[in-house]
């Protein structure tokens, strides 16, 4: 009985020792390094089991392995025995299991974890979190896009776990969250010390199209391009460079968003305070064209003071043209101050006012009656436009083209580019109009011919043609026509054939038409007028005297 009892106890103790000493596969066990050879560490995991682990599994990313004979380490037992009779163990898997336990606790506590970036993958980087590999998205590396992540590789630093799934082996971390948190603390501390209106030193950290970010010692402020100088600044790089130390004034602090607005020009004197004294109205100054728009050009009178030359104030003669065809950027020009609005910080300037009005000059140098010569610039339905000195135009109306032809006929004789002469008939400076006349070049023959003739005058004309309806006559080179009914008071004598070409005939002027340039003439009217005059002088027709008697008496009286 005792022997049987002793055997049973021995078996129980042996089984217990097997259960205690023999580790189960898929678990983490402790072992001792008994040798290091051929790039591997030989580890005794107990129960006379040994396994091999590559030395690289004992190294952190970017570091050399730290392992020596006698060190105790934890490894993961994959299998108790392989084909060579050795245990299959892994240090990486042991670290991973240990790390997952630790990371799950940190994730639950929202605590930071330490890791090192060791590789680059699509969309981001891989991070070693002490055995577990996590994914770091590119957007979570820094608060601003990182062009070169080389300096961050292999560097131990804190991360925040954003998401983890142990079953899928998925961990997502963020470095940016840590930076923003520490940055927010630092910003709060720095902002607490700043007051609006303070003048502080800062370092230009970044330059953009619209301004520059300035580091004020842990917190960035925005220096907008419009607050860099009183003058126009097209791009911040004109006056700033990255790394430069500058003095700025704190313009505004937003306590909620922690945004700081800065200014440089606020530390300088405002040139607009003395604009009215330096640039009185109607004074002329030299300025530089800084910008050209569709509606005019901006001219800098001095740094910080710009005025607008509206397109309507740029030229006396060039209308409806783009300002860029009159001036160019950076060109120095003379301008006149037309208006100043200090409240709105606006100065209205004039370019054409620095030059004499060409219509004034023309009126002085070309009084009415002056003969001018110019090129036909344009032909319209109502006349010709002639180019004149001073880059201005004068107009010859249809009615001023010819004495003898209708305007519509006369204008057909002209073409653009023809050089013609004309007489100045009127200059209207206010309306910027110059009236010219081509027909006046030879003088007004009609006016000269009838200068001393009045309606009712008796003149002597020469017969030039005999027609059925009357006769054509000429007076001082001017042609007129006497109708048959006006050839005599007596109907029997109203015959054109009783006249011959070259006859001189006395006629009475019945009408002077300057428009048609014709004289109204009548022999009949002359005879009636003479009869009336004789009757008034020698007696009434009722006294019994005949017309012959009266005329005979009048003739004797003349003798």
From TrEMBL:
It comes from the Bacteria. Pfam families: S1. One of its GO terms (biological process) is translation. Keywords: Repeat, Ribonucleoprotein, Ribosomal protein, RNA-binding. Transmembrane segments: none annotated. One of its GO terms (molecular function) is mRNA binding. Residues 26-92, 110-176, 197-265, 282-352, 369-439, 456-524 form the S1 motif domain. InterPro entries: NA-bd_OB-fold, Ribos_protein_bS1-like, Ribosomal_bS1, Ribosomal_protein_S1-like, S1_domain. GO terms for cellular component: cytosolic small ribosomal subunit. Belongs to the bacterial ribosomal protein bS1 family. Binds mRNA; thus facilitating recognition of the initiation point. It is needed to translate mRNA with a short Shine-Dalgarno (SD) purine-rich sequence. This is 30S ribosomal protein S1. It comes from Tropicimonas sediminicola.
């Amino acid at each position: 009985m005792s022997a049987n009892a002793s055997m049973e106890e021995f078996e129980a103790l042996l089984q217990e020792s097997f259960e205690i000493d023999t580790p189960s596969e898929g678990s983490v066990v402790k072992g001792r390094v008994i040798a290091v050879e051929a790039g591997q560490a030989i580890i005794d995991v107990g129960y006379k089991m040994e396994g091999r682990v590559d030395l690289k599994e004992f190294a952190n990313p970017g570091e050399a392995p730290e392992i020596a004979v006698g060190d105790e380490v934890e490894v993961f037992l994959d299998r108790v025995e392989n084909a060579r009779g050795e245990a299959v163990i892994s240090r990486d898997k042991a670290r991973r299991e240990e790390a997952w336990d630790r990371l799950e606790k940190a994730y639950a506590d929202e605590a930071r974890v330490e890791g090192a970036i060791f590789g680059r993958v699509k969309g981001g980087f891989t991070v070693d979190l002490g055995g577990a590999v996590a994914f770091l998205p590119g957007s979570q590396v820094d608060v601003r896009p990182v062009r070169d992540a080389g300096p961050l590789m292999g560097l131990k630093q804190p991360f925040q776990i954003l998401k983890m799934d142990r079953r899928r082996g998925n961990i997502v971390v963020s470095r940016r969250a840590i930076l923003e948190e520490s940055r927010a603390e630092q910003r709060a501390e720095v902002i607490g010390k700043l007051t609006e209106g303070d003048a502080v030193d800062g370092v230009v950290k970044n330059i953009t199209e619209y301004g520059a970010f300035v580091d004020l010692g842990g917190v960035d402020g925005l220096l907008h391009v419009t607050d860099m100088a009183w003058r126009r600044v097209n791009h911040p790089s004109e006056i700033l460079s990255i790394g430069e130390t500058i003095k700025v004034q704190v313009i505004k602090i937003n306590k909620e968003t922690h945004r700081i607005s800065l200014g440089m020009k606020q530390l300088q004197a405002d040139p607009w305070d003395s604009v009215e004294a330096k640039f009185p109205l109607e004074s002329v100054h030299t300025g530089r064209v800084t910008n050209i728009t569709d509606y005019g050009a901006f001219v800098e009178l001095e740094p910080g003071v710009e005025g607008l030359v509206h397109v309507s104030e740029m030229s006396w003669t060039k209308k409806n043209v783009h300002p860029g065809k009159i001036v160019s950027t950076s060109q120095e020009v003379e301008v006149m101050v037309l208006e100043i609005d200090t409240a709105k910080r606006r100065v209205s300037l004039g370019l054409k006012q620095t030059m004499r009005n060409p219509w004034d000059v023309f009126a002085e140098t070309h009084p009415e009656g002056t003969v001018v010569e110019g090129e036909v610039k344009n032909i319209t339905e109502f006349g010709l436009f002639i180019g004149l000195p001073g880059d201005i135009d004068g107009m010859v109306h249809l009615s001023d083209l010819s004495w003898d032809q209708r305007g519509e006929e006369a204008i057909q004789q002209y073409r653009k580019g023809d050089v013609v002469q004309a007489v100045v008939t009127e200059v209207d400076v206010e309306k910027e109009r110059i009236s010219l006349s081509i027909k006046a070049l030879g003088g007004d023959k009609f006016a000269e011919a009838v200068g001393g003739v009045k309606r009712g005058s008796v003149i002597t004309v020469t017969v030039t043609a005999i027609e059925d309806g009357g006769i054509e006559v000429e007076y001082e080179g001017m042609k007129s026509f006497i109708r048959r009914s006006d050839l005599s008071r007596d109907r029997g004598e109203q015959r054109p054939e009783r006249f011959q070409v070259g006859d001189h005939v006395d006629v009475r002027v019945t009408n002077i038409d300057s428009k048609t340039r014709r004289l109204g003439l009548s022999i009949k009217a002359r005879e009636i007028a003479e009869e009336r005059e004789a009757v008034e002088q020698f007696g009434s027709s009722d006294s019994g005297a005949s017309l012959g008697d009266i005329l005979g008496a009048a003739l004797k009286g003349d003798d």
